[in-house]
Amino acid sequence: MTLFLGVDGGQSSTTALIADETGRVLGRGADGPCNHVQSAAEGREKFIRVIGGCVRAACAEAGLAAELPAFRAACLGFSGGPADKQGILREMLTVDDLLVTTDAAIALAGACGGGPGIITIAGTGHISMGRGRDGKLARAGGWGYIFGDEGGGFWIACQAVRAAMQVHEHWGVSTSLHGRLLEATGFAEANAMMHAFYTAEWPRKRVAALSRIVDEEAERSDAVAISILERGAAELIRISAIVRGNLFAADEEARLSPIGSVWKSRILRESFVRQWSQANPYNMFAAPAMGPAAGALLEAFRIAGLSVELHHLPETEK
Question: Which of 129, 170, 2 lies closest to 73 in space, CA to CA?
Answer without folding.
Answer: 2
